[in-house]
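During the reporting period the student researcher (J.K.) took over the structure-prediction task from the postdoctoral fellow and processed the backlog of single-chain submissions. One of the processed entries is reproduced below for the supervisory committee.
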Amino acid sequence: MMAKKIRDILYGASIREVVGTTDCAVQSLIFDSRDVVKDVAFIAIRGAAADGHDFIDNAIEKGASVVVAEEKPTTIQDHVNYIIVNDTHEALAVMAHNFYDRPSKDLKLVGITGTNGKTTTTTLLYHLFMDMGRAVGLISTVENKINEETIPTERTTPDPVSINKLLREMVEAGCEYCFMEVSSHAIHQKRVGHLHFYGGGFTNISREHLDYHKTFKEYLNVKKAFFDGLGESTFAVTNVDDKNGNVMLQNTAARKVTYGLKNVADYKAKVLENNFTGLVLSLEGTELYTRLIGDFNAYNILLVYAVAEQLEDNRIEILRVLSSLQPVEGRFEYFKSKTGVIGIVDYAHTPDALENVLKTIHNIRTGNETVFTLIGCGGDRDRTKRPVMAKIACEWSDKAVLTSDNPRTEDPEAIIDEMMTGVGGEHYQKTLNIANRKQAIKTACTMAEPDDIILIAGKGHETYQEVNGEKNDFDDLEILKEILQKLNK
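J.K. obtained the following structure tokens:
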């Protein structure tokens, strides 16, 4: 991008005071002082781990010519222009939107939010529209895409600068649509602020991120805020089978659209068959076969269909392409070993997601096999769900193996101890604690007999394990396949 005048970049921002001038140009927008170079604007963001206001002097020393902050520094440098705003999170969203020439206005941006199913839904929408011959972008937990080009991703929803840069690149590549995961953190931190969404979709909501949001009500209201912000010319699709589904639509100006398997809805389906080869659905009078498995995926497919119908009017083409889509990486990804042991890897890292996966296995299994569930909980994250996750694993499995997930800075054994508080006395005999994740997988594989089922939950598509700030190579699916092959099972 070419350098832009600060007065143009700040258009629409709430400014309290200007020290210096806004009639100056900057080359880029930076909110991490480590990335500052000459002639950039440094935006001081208050984060969970650090406050950007503490690094203003450092940013100026490295060449920042403009500082955007919520408080005027005690020491003012003559050669620096200071913009004092009410909220730097909001200011950054405005500035990024303007700096990249408001790219979300130049394509149809659809945001998907909820606790579970965001990645599956956005990824399926991306592949659906690509397979229908459209030019499409994707912003997701697993990867970002501009048509066929893959761009690595660090988090579910990127920062405002990265989002707007990506959207501008999508526009320049001719993209007509972009499907984007919208996390609760991103809504709360205004990372998606000032984006022009063409529509939004809601999957479901359950307990998650309570280390950040503190209460479920706050978490719910943050999700709802996304739909509150949609305009009259947009659409909002919600899951009416979720008890909070209609809450999302209470104050939205968008066109209200509903979907569900149980309740009256604009888009309704019925599960006719559900097994390891996939689902057969009756969808608006049409029988649809899909390779995705489980009732939770029936909801994902319904949401994909509903969103697609809001964007395109070719129902027959949508259904035809929908039936050919492949499961999403790390989401109920399974294989069968030579002697019939079924290995399943799933990203389920919330109580609701884990229970959905285990219920699906329960509905498919014959009852003669043993179900092993291997589960851990991430360190430095919501601790309240740890005993709940262990309880669910025990209740829906024949054998539960509690292990390490991404311990981060916490002691894996201490995390497992907290998980064990949810294991009732009647389940002690079927529960193993093995902190080393690879050893835990090996133990489950060694114990499994032909036709048994091994579920490894929590990490899904991730190919690393995060320990004390380091990401070490670790791929659940590859390790599971490798061990079963060595055991010749």
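The committee noted the following: The longest helix spans residues 295-311.
J.K. will present the remaining backlog at the next meeting.
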